[in-house]
Specification:
Elements (H helix, E strand, L loop, with lengths): L2 H4 L3 H18 L3 E3 L1 H10 L6 E5 L6 H16 L3 E6 L1 H11 L13 E4 L5 H15 L6 E3 L4
Parallel strand pairs: 2-3, 3-5
Antiparallel strand pairs: 1-4, 2-4
Helix pairs in contact: 2-5, 2-6
InterPro entries: GADD45, Ribosomal_eL30-like_sf, Ribosomal_eL8/eL30/eS12/Gad45
Pfam family, one: Ribosomal_L7Ae
GO biological process, one term: regulation of cell cycle
């Protein structure tokens, strides 16, 4: 039994909390978007990263799986909370809408997003969800973001 099945009623609120967290973090310039950009930040300053969001709708992409494996390993070693999400289109809606003034090319790779804030209530809700998932042996918690 997966955590998301057991606590199904929590998933929608956690999804909303994650969305709010990402939008707020982006407004505060506390978001790093993209696999390569994230890897650079993790190499230089892993102590300030509080959440790693790995997003993919296509589980068939071998290169993406390799990147995710390496990022997950690094995050586990650095005690960074990891959350896998499906709903890349929803992430695009959220993050491009918030940051319409920036270059749209920046938002093409939404597969990895790092959050570097620590004082947000929504971060605590997402973190609690991830901790509970790990307690139930789901080492990389998963969440589905719904398009609107």
């Amino acid at each position: 039994l997966r955590f998301s099945e057991f606590y199904g009623c929590l998933s929608p609120s956690v999804g909303l909390a994650l969305e709010e967290l990402l939008v707020t973090a982006q407004k505060q310039d506390c978001l790093t978007i993209g696999i390569y950009e994230s890897a650079k930040l993790l190499n230089v300053d892993p102590d300030n990263v509080v959440l790693c969001v790995l997003a993919a709708d296509d589980e068939e992409d071998v290169a993406l799986k390799i990147h995710f494996t390496l990022l997950q390993s690094f995050c586990c070693d650095s005690d960074i909370t990891i959350l896998r999400v499906s709903g890349v289109q929803r992430l695009k809606q959220l993050l491009v809408a918030v940051d319409a003034n920036r270059n749209q090319e920046e938002h093409r790779d939404l597969h990895c997003i790092l959050v570097t804030v620590s004082e947000m209530e929504t971060l605590q809700e997402v973190g609690t969800y991830c901790q509970e998932s790990r307690r139930l042996d789901q080492w990389v918690p998963e969440l589905v973001l719904q398009e609107r």
